[in-house]
Amino acid sequence: MTKAAQGEADIVIFDLEDAVSEGERPAARDLIRGFLEAQSEDQRGRLWVRVNPLDGSHTADDLAAVLPARPGGIMLPKSRGRHDVEELDRLLTALELESGLPAGSTPVIALVTEVAAAMFTTGNYAGAPRLVAMTWGAEDLADSIGALSNRGSDGQYSFTYELARSLTLLGAAAASVPAIETIDGDFRNLEGLKARAEQVRRDGYRGMLAIHPAQVPVINAAFTPSEEEIAEAREIVALFEANPDLGTIGHKGKMLDRPHLSRARQLLAQVEA
């Protein structure tokens, strides 16, 4: 936990789910709570906790243990749809009031493709309380459907898992929250990580989960707009502002229309944020 917290990640997620065996859950809760309580208020804001899924018996105990220590947010695994986020909201609100925290002050990121049924609900998260981002998972999905592997002979995700990635991206856009790419378990292959991060950013993803500290600088670099991208976006915005009555504008041998303007503004908003 110390090594992760001292790294460059924007958010650090402490895991109470898959990384913890059944008998170690009480001790893990105590460790995370103690670590959070030892941090400054500023540092605590980037320290999140992944609790257990709502279809099990551990979620309420996880939340009761860590929420009084004011984590920056909660990751909900194996979300089956908007109703799971709403149920988590009810649990969090009660605990926030008990702990003297403002109701609604704990944000949530949902893992939305880890069970087969969840693939059909990725588009219903719009307006879900507390939701600030959506991400997906390939390993648990493979387990859910009984697959021997989630990758083809070329080492790339097979169709079902690329579908999960696409549905997460579309669902996040429909919910007006960022889509966050899943982990790359091959933490020694930083060149492959770089290529994948750059590709999903082009597709519309706004961040990526890391499983090893060495991955964080690569991911940060891939998702940071370059000076050339920023300059081009500013140029596009300036062109349309100078020609407010035009729907399309010729620029450097290309035709630019309103979607180009929208993407330029989104990029600049990301930089400003």
Measured between the Cα atoms of the first and last residue, the distance is 27 Å
Quaternary: single chain
Count of DSSP H/I helices: 11
**Main pleated-sheet profile:** 7 strands, parallel
What fraction strand? 5-15%
In one word, what is the shape?
globular
Name the strands of the widest sheet in spatial order.
1-2-3-4-5-6-7
Structural class: alpha/beta
Mean pLDDT: 94
Helicity, in percent?
Answer: 40-55%
Q: Write the element-wise H/E pattern from the N-terminal end onward.
A: HEHHEHEHEEHHEHEHHEEH
Low-confidence parts: none
Return Rg in Å. 20 Å
Tally the beta strands. 9
Domain HpcH/HpaI aldolase/citrate lyase: 2-213
Organism: Qipengyuania aurantiaca
Cofactor: Mg(2+)
GO molecular function: lyase activity
Descriptive report:
- α10 packs across α11.
- It is globular and about 65 Å long.
- It starts with a helix and ends with a helix.
- The chain is α/β, with parallel strands linked by helices.
- The strands form two sheets. It has a seven-stranded parallel β-sheet with strand order 1-2-3-4-5-6-7.
- The chain is built from eleven helices and nine strands.
- α8 links the parallel β6 and β7.
